């Protein structure tokens, strides 16, 4: 089974082309592929399938094998994959996800290869029950006690849940303990992605993210969008923000139509063939399909 390893600002993925929807990955296979010691190593796995009501469907899995609604960095990598291989051409790519159809435009280099993409991420979800969160109150000012620390979280969904905590100094945050504790806080029945963000000025924010089902990643597209929305609603920034993450910078714009647009790089690292052990795991799950 052939694969491609790609990343968007360091957030990395294994891409499997399955245009005819013949494969059936399960959690065991996905976790094995994403294992950084015994597998290919990645933050997630993307299966690329033809879609009925869009150009493609992004079947996305976090590194722990759980399905996820949306991945902003991953969808840019998918766009690069299909455009560079001639599987799609045009002005706008439409990719179906578990969070609905996303529209993508690409930027190419002098040789025609995609280097960046701009994704219409849709409108943020600010209703508590739809994020989802338990309890009552304003989700943009959620008072939480996590691992003994009092946190003021701004909670937003970009198709998946995010809890954004603004801090004075990012380097001083005990991220390795607060991140995983916030992910599984009982306020979030589907768990949450946890972002810690330092506002640099009215158009720049620095961020670290602990992704649900993955751990710390170099970047998170939906997380960057959530941080930009929360920063604007808190009055810290305008509606166009550069979000600096460990792997680079993602440019976010919240337009008057209510949609959030994310722009960032997409790069392929290498391609290869899954070994016998991983292929066997995939074939075992696929044989039960249908």
Please summarize what this structure is.
The protein is of the alpha+beta class and 290 residues long. The protein has five helices and 17 strands.
How does this model look, in words?
With 290 residues, this protein is of the alpha+beta class. The protein folds into two domains: 2-119 and 266-286, Diaminopimelate Epimerase, Chain A, domain 1, CATH 3.10.310.10; 128-258, Diaminopimelate Epimerase, Chain A, domain 1 (Roll), CATH 3.10.310. Helices cover 19% and strands 40% of the residues. The chain has helices spanning 27-34, 72-84, 175-183, 221-233, 276-286; strands at 2-8, 11-17, 44-50, 56-62, 93-97, 100-108, 114-120, 142-146, 149-157, 161-166, 193-201, 204-211, 215-217, 240-245, 248-254, 260-265, 267-273. It has a 17-stranded mixed β-sheet that branches. The protein starts with a strand and ends with a helix. The relative contact order is 0.18.
Please describe the topology of this protein.
Blueprint: E1 2-8, E2 11-17, H1 27-34, E3 44-50, E4 56-62, H2 72-84, E5 93-97, E6 100-108, E7 114-120, E8 142-146, E9 149-157, E10 161-166, H3 175-183, E11 193-201, E12 204-211, E13 215-217, H4 221-233, E14 240-245, E15 248-254, E16 260-265, E17 267-273, H5 276-286
Parallel strand pairs: 2-3, 4-5, 10-11, 12-14
Antiparallel strand pairs: 1-2, 1-17, 3-4, 5-6, 6-7, 7-16, 8-9, 9-10, 11-12, 12-13, 14-15, 15-16
Helix pairs in contact: 1-5
């Amino acid at each position: 089974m052939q694969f491609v390893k790609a990343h968007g600002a360091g957030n990395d993925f294994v891409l499997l082309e399955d245009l005819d929807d013949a494969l059936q990955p399960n959690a065991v296979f996905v976790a094995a592929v994403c294992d950084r010691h015994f597998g290919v190593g990645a933050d997630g796995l993307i299966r690329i399938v033809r879609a009925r009501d869009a150009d493609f469907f992004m079947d996305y899995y976090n590194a722990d094998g759980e399905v996820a609604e949306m991945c902003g960095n991953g969808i840019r990598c998918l766009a690069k994959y299909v455009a560079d291989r001639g599987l799609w051409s045009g002005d706008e790519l439409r990719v179906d996800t578990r969070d609905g159809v996303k529209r993508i435009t690409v930027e190419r280099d002098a040789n025609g290869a995609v280097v960046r993409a701009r994704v219409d991420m849709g409108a943020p979800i600010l209703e508590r029950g739809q994020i989802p969160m338990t309890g009552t109150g304003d989700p943009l000012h959620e008072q939480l006690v996590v691992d003994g620390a009092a946190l003021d979280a701004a909670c937003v969904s970009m198709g998946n849940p995010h809890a954004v905590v603004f801090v004075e100094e990012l380097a001083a945050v005990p991220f390795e303990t607060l991140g995983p504790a916030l992910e599984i806080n009982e306020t979030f029945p589907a768990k949450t992605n946890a972002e810690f963000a330092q506002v640099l000025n009215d158009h720049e924010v620095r961020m670290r993210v602990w992704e649900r089902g993955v751990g710390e990643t170099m970047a998170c597209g939906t997380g960057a969008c959530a941080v930009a929305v929360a920063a604007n609603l808190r009055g810290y920034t305008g509606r166009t923000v550069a979000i600096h993450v460990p792997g680079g910078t993602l440019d976010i714009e919240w337009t008057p139509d209510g949609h959030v647009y994310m722009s960032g790089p997409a790069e392929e690292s290498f391609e290869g063939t899954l070994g016998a052990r991983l292929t066997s795991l995939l074939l075992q799950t696929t044989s039960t399909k249908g």
